[in-house]
Amino acid sequence: MSSTQARASRIILRLIISDRQIWLIAAGLIAVDLLVFMIPIVPVLAAYVLVARPAWFKEFIDDVYDRTGSH
Q1: Residues 63 and 69: beta-carbon distance below 8 Å
Q2: Which of 22, 42, 48, 49 is deepest in the core (most CB within 10 A)?
Q3: Minimal CA–CA distance to 55: which of 63, 43, 66?
Q4: Distance in angstroms (rounded) separating the CA atoms of residues 23 and 31
Q5: Which keywords accompany this UniProt record (predicted)?
């Protein structure tokens, strides 16, 4: 067996994973999906606006209620 074939067989052996590892990866992906995509974005943004009072939000509100504008 040449060194290239030996190296290739070592790489292939490293790529083989057990059924337990597959199930753990699947469970991890589901957990990440539930954690990331179940975050309520609107309440988080509303809390940020109430706590941080960013300047961009005041400018947005002023622009929305600007009665003298050309909108």
Answers
A1: yes
A2: 49
A3: 63
A4: 12
A5: Membrane, Transmembrane, Transmembrane helix
**Residue 31 and residue 34: Cα distance in Å, rounded?**
5
CB 49 within 8 A of CB 57: yes
d(CA 35, CA 48): 19
Helix (H, G, I), strand (E, B) or coil at 3: helix
pLDDT digits (tens, 9 = 90+) for 41-63: 888 899 999 999 999 999 999 99
| Phi-psi category of residue 5: left, alpha or beta, with phi > 0 → left and psi -120 to 50 → alpha | alpha
Amino acid in position 56 = W
Closest CA to 17 of 28, 29, 9, 25: 25
